[in-house]
Amino acid sequence: MPARSMFSAGVSIDGIDVLENLLNIKSLFTSDLFSISDFSYYYNNGLISKQGFNTEFSFCLTRSGEFFLRSDGRDYETFNGRVLVEKPGSVYHFCHQGNGAGNFTVFRFNQHIYDLAKASMMQQCDFLQDHRLRTAVMVTNPEIDYLHHAIRQTLSHDKYSKSEITGMTIELMKLVMKAMTSPRAMPVIPPSNKQLHLATIERAKEYLLDNFTKSISLVDLSRYCYVSTFHFSRLFKLFTNYAPHQYLQRIRLKHAETLIRTTRLPITDICFKSGFSRLDYFSAAFTKEFSVSPTKYQTATVEPQP
User: What's the sign of the alpha-carbon dihedral 260, 266, 271, 272?
Assistant: First the structure.
């Protein structure tokens, strides 16, 4: 996809182009429909990019660090737990003050995919309807975080199925678009908490996403993050809008739903592979979340073998 897109402009500090020194870009996946790129950056004494022009529908999911995208006459702040979305035609500057480093993943889609998204979501999404808006930032949810992590994990393997990556990426885009139709309230996080504890939340979410199939207690998680149990619970809810156990359960349920939809594994196996220790509890939680039992969901979504 040769068009220039999100964060492709050179970064300039004091008039000196330092893109190669500050911003490392790695292509993870490319197809005719979309591309996935990994961005990592390091900066000191602040940075601001040259003006960039985005020609594709794009969204960015931050894994670590904090930065601003200056677009539409305002600054859009993003960090772990937020997704930054850009329409084709947006003009932006990539900005940060102070010192630090960060990592984020950018997904870019061709015009055909964008047109399909608009056709299906236009009536429900104010952002897509308003031609004056080119950029938006929204809160993510555990399901978006799970798919983002699963895509990166799959791409880290030597061999993977392109159709599997395509399916997960299109599903991720649908979840992002769905989040845009009914955006949740943006948590108000004091600057001091971000400065002191953003890395704690990044560490906690990474641990949960890497280990959700195992038994995880709040005590274990807070110790892993070097924070008291009481303080950790308050911080996690402040940053994510979810209590730690709620976030963990939604990841597990999303994983179970994915396995039911994409494999022929027995429901009992899926229960334990998703981190649940009791089949009756898993069945009740799944039914509450998806309004159908795991068995009926499997019957409705898995095609019978010939």
Answer: negative
Domain boundaries, the chain: 11-181, 191-301
Structure tokens at 262: 């994409």
Contact 108, 1 (CB under 8 A): yes
Degrees, nearest 5: CA angle 103-239-101: 20
Confidence of residue 46 (pLDDT cuts 50, 70, 90): low
Cβ contacts of residue 187 below 8 Å, gap of 6+? 81, 139, 238, 239, 240, 241
Q: What are phi and psi of 135, to 5 degrees?
A: -135, 145
What 8-state DSSP symbol labels residue 221?
A: H
Assigned token pair, 246: 């709620």
Write out the DSSP string of 269-292.
HHHHHTT-S-HHHHHHHHHHHHSS
> Mind listing the pLDDT tens digit for each residue in 69-128?
888 788 888 999 999 999 998 888 877 766 678 899 999 999 999 999 888 887 888 888
Residue 230, helix vs strand vs coil: helix
In CATH, which superfamily holds the domain spanning 191-301?
Answer: Homeodomain-like (1.10.10.60)
| CATH of segment(s) 11-181 | 2.60.120.280
Instruction: Give CA–CA dist 85/58, Å, rounded.
Output: 6
Cβ(35)–Cβ(27) below 8 Å:
yes
Q: State how beta strands 74-79 and 66-71 pair.
A: antiparallel
Of 261, 227, 259, the closest CA to residue 244 belongs to 227
Q: Is residue 203 within 8 Å of 244, Cβ to Cβ? A: no
In degrees, to the nearest 5, what angle opens at C-alpha 2 toward C-alphas 112 and 144?
55
Q: How far is CA 240 from CA 41, 83, 129, 235, in A?
A: 24, 13, 28, 9
